[in-house]
Write a structure and sequence with these properties.
It is built from ten helices and ten strands. The protein is α/β, with parallel strands linked by helices. The strands form two sheets. An eight-stranded parallel sheet has the order 3-4-5-6-7-8-9-10. α6 links the parallel β8 and β9. The longest helix has 18 residues. The relative contact order is 0.15. The protein binds adenosine-2'-5'-diphosphate. Adenosine-2'-5'-diphosphate binds next to α9.
Length: 296
């Protein structure tokens, strides 16, 4: 399927008309220190200009250092980070959490700030108010210009319906676990209907899909890697993939997806994988805890 993007720096347009590069470099599970630093350094050298981190990844410091050392103009970069389940008790807590992220990143603004998780276990009996309060703070941050766009992550329809009851600014992005094995058609359709861009974390199924026989077959047919097929699948659906790697060659090859396209037969085979992996986590069932290791 043809897509409009021809290179890494081509972009989607968010509901507020801001541009967002079509592929983001994922850093989930890249350890703070040398691992995250080198990964981001190699990603920037390979031409990625969109980086995705989060407070809970514990690597904002290294991501920020690699950005600084790259010497790339800030306005040429698109940086996302996320509000974790701690420091979320109130409007003020959210403002503090955001400031802490900016400090760790060494930045004066981010391009996108997301609520990371809709139903933290500690707040499960009042997640509606929790999200409304956090969102109000995100709106302040947005209006101050310290986040150029705001959104959510791992939200389902019920979370977004609830948020819309009090939101003055609509979320521009919903970042979810998304790949051919977990196609999440319901929330993807909802996002689209509400002008919310769908970002795909774990577009490679955290690596698990790379050995899937159907994907390996399509990769062989195009003389491409399985990862490239999966990234291309995301782009051809209009999603924004955030592939993660800590290896220089993978980082480079995962960006090399603009000179081939999947055909109808490939799409049919990939679309049939829906439900086969089922790795995603239901926000209502997952019991993350408020205090995480990197805060110790
Ligand atoms: P590594 O980080 O060791 O390079 P996802 O983006 O779906 O979460 O998948 C990330 C996983 O996929 C990581 O384990 C990463 O390994 C692996 N990975 C990323 N790109 C490739 C690639 N091109 N070939 C093989 N494995 C890859």
């Amino acid at each position: 399927m043809l897509i409009k993007a021809n290179k890494l720096t081509d972009s989607y347009t968010l509901a507020n008309n801001n541009e967002i590069p079509v592929i983001g470099f994922g850093t989930w599970q890249s350890a703070n220190g040398e691992e995250a630093y080198n990964a981001v350094k190699w990603a920037l050298e390979a031409g990625y200009r969109h980086l995705d981190t989060a407070a809970v990844y514990g690597n904002e410091t290294s991501v920020g250092q690699a950005i600084k050392d790259s010497g790339i103009d800030r306005e040429d970069l698109f940086i996302t980070t996320k509000l974790w389940n701690y420091q979320r008790n109130s409007y003020d807590d959210t403002l503090h959490a955001f400031s802490d992220s900016l400090t760790r990143l060494g930045l004066s603004y981010v391009d996108l700030y997301l609520i990371h998780w809709p139903e933290p276990i500690e707040y499960r009996d009042h997640w509606q108010k929790l999200n409304a309060d956090s969102w109000q703070a995100m709106e302040t941050i947005y209006q101050d210009g310290r986040a150029h766009a705001i959104g959510v992550s791992n939200f389902r329809q019920k979370h977004l319906d609830e948020l819309f009851k009090t939101a003055k600014v609509a979320p521009m992005v919903n970042q979810i676990f998304l790949n051919p094995g977990d196609q999440e058609k319901s929330i993807v359709g909802y996002n689209k209907a509400h002008q919310i861009l769908t970002e795909a974390y774990s577009p490679l199924g955290t690596g698990n899909l790379l050995k899937n026989a159907a994907i390996v077959k399509i990769a062989a047919k195009h003389d491409r890697s399985a990862a490239q097929i999966l990234i291309r699948w995301n782009l051809e659906h209009g999603y924004l993939p955030l592939p993660k790697s800590t290896h220089k060659e993978f980082i480079q090859s995962n960006a090399d997806v603009f000179d081939f396209q999947l055909d109808d037969e490939d799409h049919l085979a990939l679309d049939q994988l829906d439900g086969q992996e089922k790795q995603h986590t239901d926000p209502h069932e997952h019991n993350f805890h408020k205090t995480v290791a990197f805060l110790d």
